[in-house]
Amino acid sequence: MNDNKLFTVKTSMEKEDYHKFLYIATFLRSKIIIPFILFLSALMAIFLAYSEHQFNIIKFFIFWMVLTIVAVFVIIFKVERKNKQRIKTDKTGVFNSQETLDFYEDFLIIKSTVFEGESKIKYSQFYQVLESKDYFISYFNMNQASLIRKKDMDKEKSDKLRSVYQKNMGNKYSSIL
Known about the structure:
alpha+beta; four-stranded antiparallel beta sheet; four-stranded mixed beta sheet; 10 strands; 25% strand
């Protein structure tokens, strides 16, 4: 194991970042979510458009569109509710706190101004890493993630981080740019 530090990133998460993260996690984390919503609403539209032993194609498309819109709005409502709840219950001051991430060849060390101490995590322990236009999102398990804002680092560090993740994560790394 190589204990030479590759680079350090200092980042934080504001309320706006968390809001964007929720939408990324909901709609873009898995490539199957949007097709699944479309498929399910189409399936329901088929049943609604079929009556009296006839299938009405115009009704099908109308129902499909309406059901898709309703499904998306329900999901958006749920995301917005979760966002407000998280902001209201943030007693530890996670928002706007500073995180320092030291990247090594095989692991990273996270230090936060909110919690005492530090966490050493091997890349092999990560569940998944996503790269979006604005963030690197490291999932430690299915439900726990950490954001690294790209605006908190220069292009060179961003490229290095991408390279470290691609090398160490294999198919657990995905770009959703």
